[in-house]
Design brief:
Strand content: 15-25%
Shape: globular
Helix content: 25-40%
Radius of gyration: 18 Å
Number of helices: 12
């Protein structure tokens, strides 16, 4: 990391190379630090996802009797392979060493429609089945790889914080593309005409990704989603502030949207 690179950082994390309780610190923001996720952290990350992430997804948590811990465990092979690429991280409170957030990112190499179809099959006996079918439908007639074929696409699988840390602006800090590309894992791809892409599910996710510069390229309104003659998310849309899910993209390099 050169001084020139460091000087480009404004109100984003300061790059450092120190140690945390878990591993290598790659950025800091106020009293929080980003730690590079490694495969040896898999159990910690899967535990975090089972305890905090999936219960915050509106189209999963709206159903009763979802085993969030088991869901995270069943997806642990995918999580392992995504961590292995070296683009993922977790957020740690510096003083306590508490893991308060996780961000999983990886290079998109597959059809997301097929991917979510397979997840719907995996969870067909769980109430979360409808969530996976919703996201599968989001990619009907939309192949991100074909739509942006000249680009490398970094998929943001998820970014999640423990509830009590969600109003501190950490999402804006750690999800903005111009901030992400400063992290060491991105240095070999930061000069490409590349994109970040991911789903924003619900009010909070859409607000944060919008503030971070991710463009809305497709959406499904919950109330309109139908499967097998049912509208599983109509009540969610009518009784909460969560109304839709979107696919969003943003250029990796600031000012480069071509």
């Amino acid at each position: 990391v050169t001084m020139r690179l460091l000087s480009r950082l404004k109100d984003v994390p300061l790059l450092v190379f120190s140690r945390s309780i878990y591993g290598r610190v790659i950025a800091k923001h106020d009293s929080f630090q980003i730690v590079a996720a490694e495969t040896r952290h898999l159990d910690h990350i899967v535990k975090f996802l089972g305890e905090y992430h999936y219960r915050q997804v509106p189209t999963i948590s709206c159903f009763p009797n979802v085993d969030y811990v088991r869901m995270a465990e069943r997806l642990s092979d995918d999580t392992y392979n995504q961590i292995k690429e070296g683009l993922s991280f977790f957020v740690e409170e510096e003083m306590s060493g508490e893991m308060v957030g996780v961000g999983l990112f990886y290079t998109l190499r597959i059809s997301l429609k097929d991917h979510f179809s397979s997840l719907a099959d995996k969870f067909k006996l769980c109430n979360s089945f409808y969530h996976w079918k919703l996201v599968e439908a989001l990619y009907n007639n939309l192949d991100i790889r074909e739509e942006y074929g000249s680009h490398r696409i970094i998929r943001a699988r998820l970014y999640s914080l423990k509830p009590r840390f969600q109003k501190l602006g950490l999402g804006n800090t750690f999800l903005t593309p111009s901030n992400l590309v400063q992290l060491p894992g991105y240095q070999d791809v930061a000069e490409d005409k590349s994109l970040f892409s991911g789903e924003a599910n619900g009010e909070t996710a859409n607000k944060i990704m919008g503030l971070c510069g991710y463009e809305d390229v497709k959406r499904i309104n919950y109330r309109d989603f139908e499967i097998d003659g049912k509208h599983p998310f109509r009540n969610l849309a009518e009784t909460t502030g969560n109304t839709h899910i979107t696919v969003r993209v943003a250029p990796m390099n600031p000012g480069d949207s071509n």
